[in-house]
Design a protein that fits this description.
InterPro entries: Cro/C1-type_HTH, Cupin_2, Lambda_DNA-bd_dom_sf, RmlC-like_jellyroll, RmlC_Cupin_sf, TransReg_Diox_bact_type. Helices cover about 25% and strands about 35% of the residues. By secondary structure, it is of the alpha+beta class. It folds into two domains: about 60 residues, lambda repressor-like DNA-binding domains (434 Repressor (Amino-terminal Domain)); about 100 residues, Sandwich (Jelly Rolls), CATH 2.60.120.10. The protein is globular and about 45 Å long.
Length: about 180
């Protein structure tokens, strides 16, 4: 199985070349430095969730289009086989379970937040909706200036084109399932 940084690098390079973009132009579109983009394409650097979102938003592609490996007829995902994307010094881990599917316009993640974890997401493109279900623990979601405190089994849907922040203010790990829906722009 290829490493996550190798897959991300290959996907970024494929998207860039299909569009005829230089690294300079991708840097301009995404706000990620040319040097970092070059390291990512070579598979020398694993970007953070924040960097991946900057690239996805700037290139106007789904988040998971940067993470997905080649397709197969049946997709079984063992969490043990998925390399996490790390944020907040390792306190927040995002696992891509199902990459973007152009037929359904969905992608799915498992996110684990240790106590004290916090992740601020930059606004996504217009037409992106997040569906979140809390699988374990307690989870706080701040959307703009409104705070939602959620417990196991709770769910929420919101337009992702606004600033939002995930956090775990509890004493136990929080696990959430995130489904991203990409409506037509």
């Amino acid at each position: 199985m290829e490493s996550i940084q190798t897959i991300i690098g290959a996907n970024l390079e494929t998207i860039r070349k299909k569009r005829g973009l230089s690294l300079d132009k991708v840097a301009e579109l995404t706000g990620v430095s040319k040097g970092m983009l070059h390291q990512i394409e070579r598979g020398d650097s694993q970007p953070t969730v924040t960097t991946l979102w900057k690239m996805a938003t700037g290139l106007q592609v789904s988040f998971s289009s940067l993470l997905k490996a080649p397709d197969s007829a049946v997709s079984f995902v063992s969490i043990a086989d998925v390399s996490p994307i790390i944020e907040d010094n390792g306190l927040c881990r995002a696992y891509l379970q199902f990459p973007f599917d152009p037929m359904t316009k969905l992608e799915m993640f498992r996110i684990e937040l240790d106590p004290g974890a916090s992740y601020s997401s930059t606004p996504h493109n217009e037409g992106v909706y997040e569906y979140i279900t809390v699988s374990a623990g307690e989870f706080c979601l701040k959307i703009k200036d409104e705070l939602f405190r959620m417990s196991e089994g709770d769910g929420i849907r919101f337009a992702g084109n606004v600033p939002h922040q995930y956090s775990n203010e509890g004493e136990k790990q929080a696990v959430i399932q995130v489904v991203m829906y990409y409506a037509e722009p």
